[in-house]
Amino acid sequence: MRRPSARRITALLAAGVLLPVLAACGADNDKGGSTEGGDSALVIYSGRNEKLVKPILDKLEKAVGAEVEVRYGDSAELAAQILEEGERTKAGLFFSQDAGALGALSREGMLQKLPQSSLDAVDEAYRGSEGDWVGLSGRVRVIAYNPDKVAEGKVPDSVHDVVKPEWKGKVGFAPTNASFQAFVTGMRVLEGDDATREWLKDLKANGKTYAHNLATLDGVEAGEVELGLVNHYYWYERVAEKGEDKVNAKLKFLPGKDPGALINVAGVGILAESGQSATAQKAVDYLLSKEAQTYFADTTKEYPLAAGVTSKVEGLPPFDSLESPDIDLGKLESLQETLAMLQDVGLV
Amino acid sequence: MTRGSGAGPGSRPPLILLVPACVAALFALLPLGYLAVRALERGPAFAWDVVADERTLQLLGHSLGLTAVVVGACLVLGVSLAWLTVRTALPGARAWSVLATLPLAVPSYVAAFAWLSAEPDLAGFGGAALALTLVSFPYVHLPVAAALRGIDPAQEEAARSLGHGPLRTFVRVTLPQLRPAAAGGALLVALYVLSDFGAVSLMRYDTFTRAIHTSYRASFDRTPAAALSVVLVVMTIALVAAEARTRGRAGHARTGTGTARPAVPTVLGRWRPLALLWCAAVSAVAVAFPLGTLGYWLAVGTSATWDLGGLAETAWATFGVAAAGAALTTALALPVGVIAARHRGRGARLLEQAAYAGHALPGITVALALVFFAVRYAYPLYQQLPLLVGAYAVLFLPVAVAATRAAVLQAPPVLEDVARSLGRRPWQVLREVTVPLAAPGVAAGAALTFVVCMKELPATLLLRPTGMDTLATRLWTETGAGSFAAAAPYAAALILLAAVPSYLLGRHRT
After folding, report:
1. B263 CA to centre of own chain
2. What is the DSSP string of B392-454?
3. Can you list the domains of chain A with their CATH numbers?
């Protein structure tokens, strides 16, 4: 019927198979030169976004004096991948967006104990209870508000106030967001399941749900809602994307150890079986150093947790002044129950 | 209409087909092997407890309801556009045909995100159904268009000469011949909907896939996720069996002498404006709307860097892996598709079902399965390009199988019989008769596979060589950091690259 076209298709298919193979050979040759660093090379699995951490990981490569390869992905998926890889994992260091994924690897005994000097670099609250992972930077839950709609003095001081009738239809939040769920877990730890369930029901009645934190912030910005429950650094991300004069929303940092002021941390752990421990340990030391901590403060607008570095970001309250709830981040691993509760209430 | 004599229900496929088909099927069954290991890790009782939860029933209802609605909508969109662009004198038919393929390149989460930013109230069933329909109707459109091109118009002419009106001819003669292609496409849509995570998560509609993802993320426990995945596999097998039942026994190949003449395009007359409006409306919501959203991201954001070198490099890498993925998938699918079309025994049925069984699984589950096997049995290949290409074949084998099977069904088996009677060996029959006759449909399948490989995200993230980026992973990185303006060019490149194979396919029309 159409023999010529069939032949052309066969040729295309053959080319399709061959091209990438050739490309791969080329790539392997390129790599051949650089892997001669030997066994000291380090592979980092990073659950933190490339856009946020690539510059500092590039510097890390120079600091540890070995070849560093970074594999980016989602924190939870990378944790699952490492668990599946088991003893043959390619990862020497796991850089996680949140404590939960590190806790999961710790529970399976995949992480190596860190030296006391690394652990002592940060406050006890921000490291693994088994001493096998350490937090690097923190982000705090805040209330974003639209100053055109609500005066600064009227912004609630507590997440318990946002479920009051006067805010009906005026509160935005992202129930599928991991930080929101960590905050709900924190509330369960602090105030119990029954109180949290009631609060969630009230929030559902009062609030408007968004796909994620940035969408929530945009909702506040556009005046769709007056208040939004978000992480502090999204506001700075928005400023970086749109320019400060174009961002209308403001942030309220909650006082009085309110559960709504929970601090989440990103951290690192060393994979015990990878055979990359020495280089990985150097990498941990570098990430806790002044240079790296300053990067987290200035560039990702987070709170640095070590090396006595303080954030100089304008308008960001000092870390010491945050009145966050006292909570064992290890307990935030009980996310499963939180999700079951969110499902019961009908929020996710 | 005939039944092939040399390849009837009882006949055994030649080894030249059987061996590679079995290899392909075993390949496709890898994820199921992994699921069995993981789901039963803590004993069948634990797995049963996970599955025998009242929530399972609710998830089942949600998943099946969403699937039914999306499949119905895709059939309407896909068949109507295919008929208009292939068989009528529609102005700009070729352009409309290419436009009708592009939505497949729009990642479901981009579509969902675009609709949600325009109308937050869409969240839920309606929004999920809308977004999924608009990205998956090409699964129906492409094979149906290919089938329409392969139909011998003589049958329709005969029907007309016997006094059937145009509508009756379409329903009694044309539609039955399209049934294998349409049902195959509908099955792919159904499995895509079952496996999708992007759209349902953004639209907050609870389906099986979402529950599986939640299970990984919340508990880092792979056992409940695997147990839930097994339910998806059972659903898939039921759907594949249901599709097989709609096939009936009649063959649809022409048996006359000579070559089929191209069909005379139907003159639309006073329906022309309406037909144009329909094509324009579908293209507007499925292609122009997401592209417009990308344009809006570029306009309001400042994060765009216009790193054209980087974009071109990523696009080239994406083109390479997707082309390799499509080629391998098509090669593996060819024997399965030919056997499924020509041999109707239980063995042939099992082979085809094996190819489909894992297709409704979420990408993350398939990716973890491949991590599991590669780390244990193919460690040197782990996180290397060949394994990623292999993963695409496991993920998308049914896409190519469906296209091949529909195309082979349209080729007259009697020609193969003649070739055999003239002393041709099975592989010669395959090379000289079957494949050339089925080539347009096989190529359509390869094009589809190429596009879905390009936008694949979860398996690419876990299995790509460290440091390699595709357009989809770049898009994921940029949107994950909130840099929507920087993300826009990658999404746009994805959609434009998808236009290449559909444009090439269009050129083969006579």
Report:
1. 27
2. HHHHHHHHHHHHHHHHHHHS-HHHHHHHHHTT--HHHHIIIIIHHHHHHHHHHHHHHHHHHHH
3. 33-138+265-317 (3.40.190.10), 139-262+329-345 (3.40.190.10)
Shortest Cα distance, chain B CAs vs residue A235, angstroms? 11
Residues 6+ positions from B293 with CB-CB distance below 8 Å: B110, B113, B114, B117, B118
Instruction: Summarize pLDDT for A305-338 with one digit per residue, the tens.
Output: 987 888 877 778 888 888 888 877 666 667 778 8
Which one of A79, A86, A209 has the shortest CB-CB distance to B204? A209
Burial class (CB in 10 A: 0-12, 13-18, 19+), B359: buried
Question: Best mutation site among A87, A208, A241 for testing chain B: the one with the most B CBs within 10 Å?
Answer: A241
Whole-number pLDDT of residue A12: 53
Burial class (CB in 10 A: 0-12, 13-18, 19+), A201: middle
* Confidence band of B3 (pLDDT split at 50, 70, 90): very low
Residue B201: helix, strand or coil by DSSP? helix
Mean pLDDT of chain B: 85
pLDDT in tens, B340-372: 888 878 888 888 889 998 888 998 999 999 999
Task: Give contacts of B307 with chain A, Cβ < 8 Å.
Answer: none
Cα dihedral A31, A33, A34, A37 sign: positive
- pLDDT on residue B250: 54
Q: Are B351 and B21 in contact (CB under 8 A)?
A: yes
pTM: 0.86
**A 23-52 residues with CB < 8 A to B:** 23-24, 27, 43, 49-52
pLDDT of A32 above 50: no
Residues of A in contact with B302 (CB under 8 A): 241-243
Banded pLDDT at A344 (limits 50, 70, 90): confident
Mutate to test the interface with B, among A3, A5, A53, A334 (most CBs of B within 10 A): A5
What chain B holds in terms of domains, given with CATH numbers, is 15-249+272-507 (1.10.3720.10)
A72 interfaces chain B, CB cutoff of 8 Å: yes
Picking from A221, A197, A219, A218, the residue whose alpha carbon sits closest to that of residue A207 is A219
